[in-house]
Design goal:
mainly alpha; 2 domains; two-stranded antiparallel ribbon; Mor_transcription_activator; Mor transcription activator domain-containing protein; Homeodomain-like_sf
Length: 152
């Protein structure tokens, strides 16, 4: 991914995140969870308890990505499991990307001096997508959390 994700954007698509991602956010915070998902999403991450030589190596690799304090939290909570499934979160990340694209289209066409076709071409190149995909994204609306109806 060439684009970044803020904690607020991650929180805005919380309803699209799998339970495993929400668990990670509760343990290490949104920023560290996003870094783990970006780096290891879709894999079983080996986790050590930072006691043996191999455990210290696993801990050091994790600490390099998410910081020492967060790596210690992961080790304490998930070290006995040996592996931690890090979800990929494709739906949520795609929704954040699409929201950014729609906002950028609005910015370029309404506040800038771009026509819609010019804005679509510029954004397609920037996000490495086809112009047809950008047109499709531009016509969509944000996926919001739907309130659950009470069961009677």
């Amino acid at each position: 991914m060439a684009w970044s994700l803020t904690e607020q954007e991650f929180d805005n698509v919380r309803h699209l995140l799998p339970d495993g991602a929400i668990d990670l956010i509760q343990v290490v915070g949104a920023d560290a969870a996003y870094r783990m998902i970006k780096r290891w999403g879709g894999t079983s991450l080996p986790v050590g308890m930072n006691k043996t030589r191999n455990g210290k190596i696993l801990h050091a690799n994790l600490a390099e990505e998410i910081g020492e304090e967060n790596a210690l939290k992961i080790g304490r909570l998930f070290g006995k499991q040996r592996f931690l499934w890090v979800p990929k979160c494709q739906d949520a990340l795609r929704e954040v990307r699409n929201r950014k694209i729609r906002a950028q289209i609005d910015d370029l066409t309404m506040r800038g001096s771009y026509s819609m076709p010019e804005a679509v071409r510029k954004i397609a190149v920037e996000y490495n997508l086809t112009d047809r995909q950008i047109w499709y994204i531009a016509k969509q609306t944000d996926i919001d959390a739907s309130p659950q109806m009470a069961l009677i």
